[in-house]
Specification:
- The chain has an eight-stranded antiparallel barrel.
- The longest helix has 32 residues.
- The protein has a single domain, classed as Porin.
- A hairpin with a 4-residue loop joins β3 and β4.
- It has 219 residues and is α+β, with helices and mostly antiparallel strands.
- The N and C termini lie far apart (104 Å).
């Protein structure tokens, strides 16, 4: 009888130890399986929608602005451009522009005297230029929308029809391109046109400043 009592007592004691230890084992195994951080940061990335240059290398555009024709006042200038992008940095541009020369100060003072006829006042230039994208960047309209941009330098040579003659012309300037969509862009630019002229006296180098804005399409 005494041995049976000891046996029952030992059996109950062992069962109690097993029951007390089992939850700790399951808790340790659960902790090992759960590798999630104790604090999960509530940070969500904000998508930014930006326009990229399309895969096409050609770009065609039109522009309008103001051209200061030395000795012949400032005039409205307009024209078109065809651009071929050699790479992300370099591009070729062929352009044509139209304007009309005004009256010289001498003509304004003399009254009926005309230095040039109406047809000779028609101003037209052609040029082929090489451009280089110096500072590609981004312009943010809102925190969720960005425009890709390019600040570029450009220079080249061509010809100018003015004053009854065709004159070899050099030009140089800079521009700022804003990509509205993958295939549509706005341009803001300034150019200097240099050629030799002798219409109002001794031959000299005429420097004509052009400021313009335009719209172009990639295709």
């Amino acid at each position: 009888m005494e041995n049976r009592t000891k046996y029952l007592f030992l059996t109950g004691f062992c069962l109690a130890q097993v029951m007390a230890f089992t939850p700790q084992v399951f808790a340790a195994e659960e902790a090992e399986r759960d590798d999630r951080p104790l604090i999960e940061p509530d940070v969500k990335p904000v998508p930014v929608d930006e326009a990229l240059i399309d895969t096409e290398n050609f770009e065609v555009g039109a522009f309008v602005g103001v051209l200061n024709i030395e000795d012949f006042e400032s005039s409205l200038v307009y024209g078109g451009k065809l651009t071929y992008h050699l790479s992300e940095s370099f591009f070729f541009e062929a352009g044509i522009g139209f304007a009309e020369g005004g009256e010289t100060s001498f003509e304004n003072l003399a009254g009926n005297v005309q230095v040039l006829t109406d047809s000779e006042r028609e101003y037209r230039y052609y040029n082929i230029n090489l451009g280089y994208n110096v500072l590609p960047g981004q312009a943010f309209l809102t925190e969720n929308y960005a425009f890709n941009t390019n600040f570029y330098l450009i220079a080249g040579a061509g010809a100018t029809d003015f004053g009854g003659d065709t004159r070899f012309t050099l030009n140089a300037g800079a521009g700022y391109q804003i990509l509205l969509t993958d295939s549509l862009a706005i341009h803001l630019g300034v150019r200097q046109h240099y050629y030799r002229i002798d219409v109002v006296g001794a031959e000299k180098t005429s420097m004509n400043t052009e400021i313009s804005s335009g719209l172009s399409v990639f295709f």
